[in-house]
Amino acid sequence: MGAREVGLPDVVPSGSLPSRVTIWEVGARDGLQNESVVVPVSVKLEFLSRLAASGLSVLEATSFVHPKWVPQLADAAELLSGLDAQPGVIYPVLVPNERGLDRALEAGVTHIAIFASATETFASRNLNRTLDSQFEMFEPTVSRALAAGMDVRGYVSMCFGDPWEGPVARGQVVAVGERLLEMGCSQLSLGDTIGVATPGQVESLLEGFRDVTRLAVHFHDTYGQALSNTLAALRCGVTTVDSSAGGLGGCPYAESATGNLATEDLVWMLDGLGVETGVDLDKLVETSVWMAEQLGRPSPSRVVRALAK
């Protein structure tokens, strides 16, 4: 049963919210890279096609991380060569360093993202760098990408809590983020990698940045706070939200993590608030039901489960 058949959600606007929100869909990259098995390229391409047909305008397609570390995305070049890019849709690709950038340039990519850490331990474990020396890796990647006419987004992980270091100081996150923006990133996505944030913490962190319009948020729903944190961010002026169709993706750093904020859950809330997204919720639910069948398990999204009955 679709959302329109149910007759919900009823639209009741709430103050201090943007009129429109851009959804940065990460299911094909951040979602599928956490799968225990490799999803065939044909399925990934169909997934991207269906997501575009649902009205999503930003689809993070894949990553040029070394296949040794993310074997699920080892087919990045093959996927991009077979991609039927739709008008009005952008397909960003995550690149870790200059080698990844070389591959992105060869594939004709126009939008890339880089991946930074807000904490020393995470930088060491995932980037093999110190908190400060990670920028030595990013600077040539960003400068070359900009020179080639690419748009560059910056991700910052562990913005609200780190499983090894605990709470993360606001000033430390802001310092990392502002440095990426000064380097040339057009947008900064603040990640709650282990899903521990609460709304007050979100508001406090966003207040630390000079220009909230250049920020996006990326919440995990480990403790059921992703939607409330998103609403807090929107009230602070954020207009781009990362999410994953069907709630695809997990968090390897915390037990019982439920992964990324589900795009359907986000759209249901925004539809009810009268905030435009351009997304057809029924088509998106159909897509996530289809993808769940390909993966052989039900979607963790509450909205998908409710509307798919």
Secondary-structure blueprint of this entry?
Elements: H1 3-6, E1 22-25, H2 27-31, H3 41-53, E2 58-59, E3 62-63, H4 76-82, E4 93-94, H5 98-106, E5 111-117, H6 120-127, H7 134-147, E6 151-157, E7 161-162, E8 166-167, H8 170-183, E9 187-192, H9 199-207, E10 215-219, H10 226-235, E11 240-243, H11 263-272, H12 281-295, H13 302-307
Parallel strand pairs: 1-2, 1-11, 3-4, 4-5, 5-6, 6-9, 9-10, 10-11
Antiparallel strand pairs: 7-8
Helix pairs in contact: 3-12, 9-10
Describe this structure in a few short sentences.
The chain is α/β, with parallel strands linked by helices and 309 residues long.
What does this structure look like?
The chain has 309 residues and is of the alpha/beta class. Helix content is 40%, strand content 14%. The chain has 13 helices and 11 strands. It has helices at 3-6, 27-31, 41-53, 76-82, 98-106, 120-127, 134-147, 170-183, 199-207, 226-235, 263-272, 281-295, 302-307, and strands at 22-25, 58-59, 62-63, 93-94, 111-117, 151-157, 161-162, 166-167, 187-192, 215-219, 240-243. The model has no long low-confidence stretch (mean pLDDT 94).
